[in-house]
Amino acid sequence: MDLEQALARIQQLEADVKRFEGINPEEARRQQQTTSEQIQNLTTQTQQLQSQVQDKDKEVRSRDLRLAAVEGLYKANVLPEYRDVLLPTITQSLKLEGDSASADSSVRVVAPEGKQPAEYVKSLRDKYPAMFAPEANPTGTGATGSTTTTQQPPNQTTVEASDPAAFIANLDEIANGKVQVNR
Fold first, then answer.
1. What is the per-residue pLDDT for 47?
2. Which residues contact 15 (CB under 8 A, 6 or more apart)?
3. Using CA atoms, how far apart are residues 68 and 116, in angstroms rounded to an integer?
């Protein structure tokens, strides 16, 4: 190092000393420690908030699915005594498409085979006809609605609606019309 370079280095060091003049190193360390602690606290709070947002998002998505299932049950004319029975099954079969975290995207509920929830529930009519109210305007029969009650066949079993154990034990038979529910 020649003399000119050494003098330039000394001048730079003197400028650095002036820049840090009046700064207490202990106080600077304390402030740095405080700042680090604040950053750590903010990071922890941010992570907790993100976790809460994710939990709320799951809750909202679950409510959306349940609401769509209930709406589907009503639109498909499922009899009231079967709605609570079918609700968990229908809800589990539904899926949400889209990202609810994005403000500009839409979330839509879809059932198996890409159907709307009500269409999916209606498709169960063939499998479980006893769970559905009769069609309002049957076509091709020429029949009009009757106000008379039908007699229960002699070999048909009945269960009381107030007996949940019997109701659940005979769920498939009730759905297929083999077991009658007394209200």
1. 95
2. none
3. 9
What's the average model confidence in pLDDT over 107-123? 83
Instruction: DSSP for 58-106, please give it.
Output: HHHHHHHHHHHHHHHHHHTTB-HHHHHHHHHHHHHH-EEES-TTSTT--
Size of the chain in residues = 183
Q: What is the DSSP letter of 108?
A: E
Q: Are strands 108-110 and 157-160 parallel, antiparallel or unpaired?
A: unpaired
42-71 per-position pLDDT tens digit: 999 999 999 999 999 889 888 888 888 888
CA gap 55, 171 in Å, rounded: 34
The 3-state DSSP composition of the chain as helix, strand, coil percent (nearest 5) reads 60, 10, 35
Cα 162 to Cα 155: distance, rounded to the nearest angstrom = 22
Q: Which two tokens stand for residue 125?
A: 């009519």
Asked if 179 and 173 touch (Cβ cutoff 8 Å), the reply is yes
What is the 8-class DSSP label of residue 124? T
Return the top range by mean pLDDT from 36-50, 59-73, 131-145.
36-50
Among the residue ranges 3-7, 47-51, 150-154, the one predicted with the least confidence is: 150-154
Q: How far is CA 127 from CA 2, 86, 122, 162, in A?
A: 98, 13, 10, 25
Helix or strand (DSSP H, E) at 52? helix 25-75
How many beta carbons lie within 10 A of that of residue 159, not counting itself?
A: 20
